[in-house]
Design a protein that fits this description.
With 124 residues, the chain is mainly β. It is 8% helix and 33% strand. The protein has 1 helix and 11 strands; from the N terminus they run E-E-E-E-E-E-E-H-E-E-E-E. A hairpin with a 7-residue loop joins strand 8 and strand 9.
Length: 124
Amino acid sequence: GSGAAGCAACPANTYSLEGAATCTGCPANWSSPPGSTSPEDCDPVNGEHCWDTFDGFRMVERYGDDLTVQEATDACFADAECSGVSCRRRKSSEDQCYLSRGGEYEEKKNSWFLKLKMEVCMDN
C-alpha cells in the first residue's frame, strides 16, 4: 500500500488485496506479475494440464499455417477463439498442426490427432 512502513510488493505468482499484510498465491498452474493486487491478475499457464488428446480425430474448422505441436499449442493457448489443435502425423518430419475453432470434429483414423483446450486453461 502507499506510505505504509511494512508494505512490500508481492512476488511473481502471488497477489495482495489492498490493506492485506500477506501475499496470496495464485492457483496451481496460474501466474501473475510481481506487484499484483488482485486474483484477476493471475492468468493460466500453458502446459500438459491444458490439453486433452484424442487419437484418430481432427477438428472440422482449421485455420492458420501449419505449425509444430509446441508452436500450435502455444498459439492456440493465446488465442481465445481457438478451441483445439488438429495435427497430422508425419513419419519423416515433425507433425503438421493447425489451430481449430468450434466444436465440430471428424474421425480420421491413424493419421491425425486432436488436442482440445481444457476449460481450466481458458482465461475468461
